[in-house]
Amino acid sequence: MLTAQIVPHAVMVLAMNDHPRAPGQLSTGMPDDAFVTDGLLTKRVLRSFALAMLAPRPGERLWDLGAGTGSIAIEWCRLHADNSAVAVERDAQRAARIGTNAANLHVSGQLDVQVAEVASVLDQLPRPDAVFVGGGVEPDVLQRCRAALPLGGRLVAHSVTADSDAVLLEAYRRWGGEMCRVGVEVAEPIGRLTGFRPLRSVTSWAATKR
Known about the structure:
CATH class: Alpha Beta
CATH superfamily: Vaccinia Virus protein VP39
Shape: globular
Number of helices: 6
């Protein structure tokens, strides 16, 4: 019998502005400024959280759907030379940036960038071992992603809207897994003092196919 529980998460971090670019970094959670972006970027703390839930293993393939800057797919590939990813992004300029980031961070040969609407290409992609849905959280997309996964495959989706939260809640009720609300606060000056500013909270749903 499948059981599931909602686990609340609150994460508080100190944000600093002097991170170096880190092409040699071995862990997940590269500095945000390591990526060329127009702002559509899964931030460092949330990226680390997502990759932990995706649980990469050597030689596995990831689908990064609604890839934006491609940071999830790129970090997945950097974890092992035999890892690969397909990044699907509908905006051509953003897709080009993904290619630039992959080249800058030395994973071009491991990453396939597809310029397309997510729902239109799922049936044409090579089978994944894990899927991250960062954009286009829709019931049909989640259903098809889960169907494409082998047993033991991981599906992780992030939402920042109430509409997408409802989709993830239904998926959680149907397939179980772990559903969390992740909140991050960053330090910034308030006059001569320092305070914390909350970033937009993200709802995360993660499940392993059984």
